[in-house]
Input
Amino acid sequence: MGKPLIYFLCTGNSCRSQMADGFMRAMGGDKYEVRSAGLEAHGLNPRAALVMEEAGVNIDAHTSDVIDEALLSRADYIITLCGHADEHCPHVPNKAAVRWHWGFDDPAKAIGSEEEIMAQFRLVRDAIRSRIAVFLEQGS
Output
């Protein structure tokens, strides 16, 4: 039997789900298979990649993907990171999957100077890292 699959879902698979994917691979990839996807594929947000690099996690090679029904059906954990994805996630045929919603503000919607926008990306990044650390400490 393989590692439990964690599937992070968001609307566009460009920021929050990519950060969660990157941190979980870096912090718990030895224990879990990690994937991420969106209801749509908006492409990897360059600011998300930049703030992750600042945190020592390179996500430059990540792709922005739409939800794969086969992965969804075999996921052990389905974690939505935005309200839109939580409300619109497809029906999950795997009744045994644990489904959680970890809501984080969308840093891509931040307004202001470049410095203020990047501060919002860092805030969300750090909140995601903290939530993943709790997940790993608790074993789920």
